[in-house]
Amino acid sequence: MEKLKNYIHGEWVEGSGNGIPLYNAVTGEQVAVSDTEGLNFEQALDYGRTVGYKNLFSMTFYDRGEMLKKVALYLLERKKKYYELSYKTGATHADSWVDIEGGFGTFFTYSGLAKRMLPNTPFWVDGETQKISANGTFLGTHILTPSEGVSIQINAYNFPVWGMLEKLSTSLLAGVPSIVKPSPYGSYLTNAVFQDMIESGVLPEGALQLVCGEPGNILDYVQDGDSVLFTGSANTGRKLKSMPSIAGNAVRFNMEADSLNCSILGLDAKPGTPEFDLFIKEVRTEMTTKAGQKCTAIRRIIVPEHLIGEVQNALSKALDQTKIGNPLSRETRMGSLVGKQQYDEVVRKVNILKSETELVYDGKHELIDADYDNGAFMSPKLFLNDKPFEKNISHDVEAFGPVSTLMPYKDAEEAAALAKRGKGSLVGSIISHDEKFIAETSWKMASQHGRIFVLNRDNAKESTGHGSPLPTLMHGGPGRAGGGEEMGGLNGLHFFLQKTAIQGSPDVLTAITKVYQQGAEKKFSDKHPFQKYFEDVEVGDSLETAGRTVTDADIVNFSNVSWDHFYAHTDATSLTGTIFDKTVAHGYFILSAAAGLFVSGKKGPVIANYGLENCSFFKPVYAGDTITVYLTAKEKINRGVKGRNIPSGVVKWLVEVVNQREEVVCVATILTLVAKHSPFIDLNVKNVQKILGGLTETTSLNWGKMSPQQMIEHLEHGVLVSLGEPEADKCFTPEEQLEKWQDSLYNHRKMPKDFPAPFLAEDETLLELKHKNLEAAKQSFLDNLKRFSVYYKENPQAEHMNYVFGKLNKEMWELMHKKHFTHHFEQFGLI
């Protein structure tokens, strides 16, 4: 039987022992063997701390975000084989989707967050700068850098893919190398995904290692700077946390443990209401998804005492209708437990629950294409705790399978009290349409819950469900749930980052943080900052504007245009007892006037105003005052761009407005979208003519089969098609892919060298030559390029068909020609 290999020190290594046999949870057949015996764990940790840390730290947060996206895309293309393995763990298609594509989705989410919100530097400035001296020559701020160590991630058996990827999404983005230790059960699925992550070639050396089996003594070698993330039972987690190597070395430890999560049916949610039906559906889903093997599953069903019987009946009917069996069958809605060992453990816990509470539903389901003897199948089981404030077994014992307990309550006070008797939960839900009941119960139970999920008729269609942790929200909980936190958007990175206070002068803090600090030296030049591309803007680039004297007419006109007739701007007789001596200019007029002073009217790389932050007005501006503006590049933020947007970054500009006495009257930060340098040539005819000067009949190709004249006539034909001469009769790209192809015109990715034109046969020469020689072809091409420019000035709304990209307008044709010309000019080594 095949042994699963471990990935240690950059190599795939088999264990040297007998290992643990792994079985198909549906058929009982052996699938693989996991074995970690003989592995050098000390060497593995050292490799991660040195090679892995160095390689990840050298990347920026933005680059790591791009890395996550590339890995996720690579895995998504190979998802079919992961599903085939997932079925062997007993998971249905729906269960597998949550595990597999939910894991990929977490990578995509964190990639998006990084590219929108994190800097293109290996460190991250956290929070605002603090002025800690009277004159502002001594400042303080905080930066976050990757903790210098390795992260050991111990995952549970219930989510072999998501369990790995949700932890890696934050550790990799933070820049910390990781060693993944999945549960042996289902580890053959983790192993397959991990193999592809390594084979993708996207991850730097040392970033990831895999221990596919028992952990051995790996935790004996952790040291200061390392971290341990554990998902599993609360009992095991507490033992690990107290290990001398962890407790004695200040090793960061995060635990996400199983918990006795609850769902509360509101007092208003009587039979016949949408909320009652939603409650039954939600509880059934949480009892049967992954066969109840979820740390977020509903274990305690808290119901108004007068509705206990009706809930029991409705839930029993719903569970009766849940078809159990082979996950490969389309009829199956619930698969098996992950293995016989887990089955035996759940049975043991069920028997403990029976000692104090009544088993009121024990499904007698006939299996679809499976049998109870070979597979680890268990029917759903529902208990009733009629005195939940006296019988504590329901609040202490968790059967990690399709098992849950009904219990009654009288009022919101009792509902919240029962919810908290779980002694710390990952999630609790409230299903009600009574906002007062929801609010009162939520406040009272929040201290013992990591997440509170409210469901009713208003959000049911878009709800993600009680049991679904989301990348942008914290996953974890207090007490029994482990006291840990995972994901939660960018907050999930903080566990892996060291926070350091930085103190110094404005110039020093600017140099360290790459964010301009007020009081630091400004860099003035003759070139207007708004005429610089994103790559060329430097933090500290500044502009001092001319002055503008504010007049009474300005104040009156702005009042009329804006409809802002606040008395301080319009009524001099009402100013007694105010801070104003006379009618004052509007703050937003000062900001608008400042923009008028610092913007560049000439078209340039600045695309648009993106936003405004931290605008404050310090002194009034009256008619007769003269304002001057200092504009300074404060911070640059790289950003991912999708769809039909020009590749760009965000530049934050510090705007300081002073009066004639050099007193600061207004400070704001404006954000602009600034275009990045295009790698494609400009369509300027003189520029193209200069490039073509280097093309002769003997110029050799870097790829392809064209002659120089064929290439020129091919480009000329493209220009003529963009003029409708001739009008292309069809587009060869399928309609469903057309939008994606058109969007691609806007990005900065070059055309692939081996792209076969779909409108040409494989062995067909491009076109019959129509010009007598290369020079004549060049001249005709340049003449038609001039015509192109004139045509779209005279016909700005014109659209013409392209064989690949469909019907294109002026902007799209320009983008297409830029890419196309660049492609073929590079083919002949002209640029």
TrEMBL record:
SUPFAM superfamilies to which the protein is assigned, alphabetical: ALDH-like, Thioesterase/thiol ester dehydrase-isomerase
CDD domains the record matches: ALDH_MaoC-N
Alphabetically sorted, this entry's keywords are: Hydrolase, Oxidoreductase
> The Aldehyde dehydrogenase domain covers which part of the protein?
12-499
Which GO molecular function entries does the Swiss-Prot or TrEMBL record give? hydrolase activity; oxidoreductase activity, acting on the aldehyde or oxo group of donors, NAD or NADP as acceptor
Highest taxon of the source? Answer: Bacteria
Question: Which ranges carry the MaoC-like domain?
Answer: 539-639
Q: Which Pfam families match?
A: Aldedh, MaoC_dehydratas
State the residue spans of region: Disordered: 460-484
Does the record bear Transferase in its keywords? no
Q: Cite the PANTHER family for this sequence.
A: ALDEHYDE DEHYDROGENASE B-RELATED
NCBIfam families attached to this UniProt entry: PaaN-DH, PRK11903.1
Name the chain's protein.
Answer: Oxepin-CoA hydrolase / 3-oxo-5,6-dehydrosuberyl-CoA semialdehyde dehydrogenase
Q: Give the species this sequence originates from.
A: Chryseobacterium shigense
Q: What is the lineage of its organism?
A: Bacteria, Pseudomonadati, Bacteroidota, Flavobacteriia, Flavobacteriales
